[in-house]
Write the structure tokens for this entry.
Amino acid sequence: MEYELILRIFIAALLGGLIGLEREYRAKEAGFRTHFLVALGSALFMIVSAYGFGDSGSLQPSALPVAVACTSWPLPLP
């Protein structure tokens, strides 16, 4: 299980870095470091929210990321 999580983090960092390199090549604002860190942080956030709280049973693993993503939604969350 640890290897799978490390692989997920590595793939997210690699793909974020590739996007950042492409943006630096085209002289855009956010480059390698920004996209690398954003991809790494979002991968860690999703892994912690899915596996970091143990077997609670009643909680959904995606409840925390959905609540964060919907903070600007005009309707109240259920």
User: Anything to note?
Assistant: The CA atoms of residues 11 and 40 lie 9 Å apart. DSSP finds three helices and no strands in the chain. Helices lie at 2-25, 32-51, 63-69.
